[in-house]
Write a structure and sequence with these properties.
The protein is of the alpha+beta class and about 200 residues long. The protein has a domain of about 110 residues. Helices cover about 50% and strands about 20% of the residues. The chain is built from six helices and seven strands; from the N terminus they run αβααββαββαββα. Strands 4-5-6-7 form a four-stranded mixed beta sheet. Strand 2 and strand 3 form a beta hairpin. The termini are far apart.
């Protein structure tokens, strides 16, 4: 009887070890202790025009090893794990990218300008109808992505971020149209005429 119990314990032990080894290779990735998880949603990746693999590649190429892990996660999202001392690097990087975008936009015309707040909740664009629509979309979407990233770095949920976007007539300073990440933004020639 005792030999039978010892044999059963061995079998249970072997099965337990096998199941632990199997489970270690599947499911969600393990997280680094004390790391914050920044989850980039499918919505954000779509606005950025990226798939999961492309977003991961971009993060790794600009990350300068200021992350613990970056990987594809459920629902078409990407998760980046960072420690508190790495958060500042990512925040300053996003702010510097916004500043570069601001300079590029202002270089298009002396009356054009892009304004934003440091917490990434609002964007104000000043331009006119001489700006090609596709170019305007590029600047608005790029700035929106950088602002969303700032909010995520400040602890916002992956789908909880939103950016208020205001388009102003550069010549008059009057509002052409307002929108947000949640409502979208579009305008017509009539909107521009009303802002003159």
């Amino acid at each position: 009887m005792r030999g039978h119990l010892i044999e059963m314990k061995r079998i249970v032990c072997v099965l337990l070890c096998l199941s632990l080894a199997f489970c270690a290779g599947c499911g969600a990735k393990s997280t680094v202790e004390n790391a914050a998880q920044i989850v980039y949603s499918e919505k954000l990746l779509s606005i950025a025009g990226q798939d999961q693999a492309g977003w991961i590649e971009d993060l790794k190429s600009i990350g300068a090893d200021n992350y613990e892990d970056i990987y594809e996660s459920d629902g078409g999202t990407v998760t980046m794990e960072i420690l508190d001392n790495q958060r500042d690097y990512w925040r300053e990087l996003r702010l510097s990218l916004l500043a570069a975008l601001q300079e590029d936009f202002a270089a298009l015309d002396e009356d054009y300008r892009l304004e934003y707040d440091r917490d990434g909740t609002q964007l104000d664009f000043y331009y006119d109808l001489n700006l090609d629509a596709s170019e305007a979309v590029y600047y608005v979407l790029s700035a929106e992505v950088f602002c969303a990233c700032l909010q995520l770095l400040d602890g916002c949920d992956s789908d909880g971020w939103t950016v208020a976007i205001n388009i102003y007539n550069a010549a008059t300073g009057k509002l052409v149209q307002a929108g947000s990440s949640d409502t979208g933004l579009s305008y017509t020639e009539d909107d521009w005429k009303a802002s003159e």
